[in-house]
Amino acid sequence: MHQKPFLLAAEGLTRSFDGFKAINDLNFYLDEGELRTVIGPNGAGKTTFLDLITGRTKPDVGSLKWDDAKYDLLKMNEYEIYRLGIGRKFQTPTVYNDHTVTENLILSLAGSRGIWHSLFGKITSEQKDRIAEILTTIKLADSAHRKAGILAHGQKQWLEIGMLLAQEARLLLVDEPAAGMTDEETYRTGELLLSLAGKHTIVVIEHDMTFVRQISQGRKVTVLHQGHVLCEGPVDEVQSDERVIEVYLGR
Ligand code: ADP
Q1: What per-residue confidence (pLDDT) applies to 92?
Q2: What's the pLDDT tens digit per position in 101-128?
Q3: DSSP letters spanning 143-155
Q4: Which Pfam families match (predicted)?
Q5: Helix (H) or strand (E) holding 17
Q6: Closest residue by CA, ligand 1 atom 27
Q7: Is 48 in the pocket of ligand 1 (CB under 6 A)?
Q8: Rounded distance, CA 191 to CA 123, Å?
Q9: Helix intervals (H) in the chain
Q10: CA–CA separation, 177 vs 204, rounded Å?
């Protein structure tokens, strides 16, 4: 067992599909405030791992504990896990295109009571301040009243990160945030995630190693391979690890 306190602890997790172990005896520990990057070749089990954390799928065996083992995520359903403060951003942005940037954030507010109440009911002055703060953080204050559908791809990704903040997610699971972005947008995404680190706990799944280097900066990087943690450590160490080179280059 990992030393306490921890935010998330996965131990001995295994998840098979038709006898194939997509996740195989996985151990993974996350401390509060960490910004952790998870890399690994296609098919390594990254998506399945996020599915297990969010309760989208359940493991065959293993344990998954939250907040110093106060909660057993395996005994909770997807909605209960979401309510604990575990938010996920998928690779493709899923914003409400016909609503403004601000409305998207209002709809995501923690405790939001449905679309009608959110948009036409009263929001408190604290919530207004919180939305203004998020708009500044995600650098979309100038687009607050524009429809989300007309935002650039990168801006939609930032809005989605903003929606996780509005949800008051304690853990942000961010799947390939830089996919399809220009170099400039990628860099700005890295800056955004770095600005959130410490205040939030973030797990980023990413392929782009320039981006991984930007956001890692001495932080721990986890390499998944065949559903198992192959190695963990600072990005330089991981990138020069013989096992990692072999997995990526097939040598
Ligand atoms: P990654 O996100 O690292 O590319 P995945 O978690 O998507 O990896 O997949 C890991 C392995 O599990 C792959 O070989 C994939 O084909 C398999 N897999 C994932 N989900 C399913 C499923 N629902 N049914 C069958 N096989 C699956």
Answers
A1: 77
A2: 999 999 888 666 556 666 666 778 888 9
A3: GTTSBGGGS-HHH
A4: ABC_tran, BCA_ABC_TP_C
A5: strand 8-17
A6: 17
A7: yes
A8: 30
A9: 46-53, 78-84, 101-108, 114-120, 125-137, 153-166, 183-196, 209-216, 235-239, 242-249
A10: 8
